[in-house]
Design brief:
Distance between the termini: 55 Å
Protein name: DUF4194 domain-containing protein
Shape: globular
Structural class: mainly alpha
Oligomer: single chain
Number of strands: 5
Strand content: 5-15%
Order of helices and strands: HHHEEHEHHHEEHH
């Protein structure tokens, strides 16, 4: 193996590992990796390796978010995708309610997208000052996705944000500051929502409004 080939493998190996782990690579989560995958030659090398194990580099948000998909779908692959899709669908209502709360409490015209900052201290103050927002937070924090059992809004919102970081929807660049950044996984989520709406006529807003106690802990 030539030195040049070894360099290529070393350079793409970390990217391949991240993709196979299920990571979503965007400018916010991994700018170096994102730039590498935006480069056609690098992406082709990663693609060539993944193709050998029936994987492919998939993208969302008009090519600004990269993740790993299957190249060919057999029965076993369909089962995996079905399970993953089911997990996403079960998380949709709490995630949509959180997005709506952040948008309303922040007074934003559009929902969060990749790269947008969320200042937790400011958001928390606005929520705590508005009874309707406090009720929304209390409700969504109890969904199984977040699992809060606290009646304290401070504990509720911090747990929600902690879980969203764990799930890859937010990053916290500086642990000394309460500033979070939305990742490209949110943009991927919007594409999933649009897909469900288009293919099944699913009204997420109606689902959120009619969510029953069985959706809660």
């Amino acid at each position: 193996m030539s030195d040049a080939t070894q360099t290529v493998l070393v350079g793409t190996g970390a990217l391949i590992e991240l993709l196979l782990k299920g990571e979503f690579i965007c400018r916010t989560t991994n700018e170096e990796g994102w730039r590498a995958l935006k480069n056609n030659s690098t992406r082709e090398r990663v693609e060539a390796y993944l193709n050998q194990i029936n994987r492919t580099v998939a993208s969302a948000a008009e090519g600004d978010v990269f993740f790993c998909g299957y190249l060919q779908l057999g029965d076993s692959e369909r089962k995996v995708i079905s399970s993953q899709f089911k997990d996403i669908c079960q998380a949709l209502i709490p995630l949509v309610e959180w997005l709506v709360l952040v948008q309303e409490a922040s007074g934003q015209d559009a929902p969060l997208s990749e790269g947008a900052p969320v200042r937790l201290t400011e958001l928390q103050s606005r929520i705590e000052d508005t009874p309707a927002f406090r009720e929304q937070l209390a409700k969504l924090s109890q969904y199984r996705l977040f699992g809060s059992t606290s009646t304290n809004s401070d504990a509720q919102i911090k747990l929600v944000f902690k879980r969203l970081v764990e799930l890859g929807y937010l990053v916290r660049p500086n642990v000394e500051k309460q500033i979070y950044i939305a990742t490209g996984k949110l943009d991927y989520l919007y594409e999933v929502i649009r897909f469900i709406d288009e293919t099944e006529g699913l009204s997420l807003e109606a689902q959120a409004e009619t969510a029953t106690q069985r959706d809660l802990i």
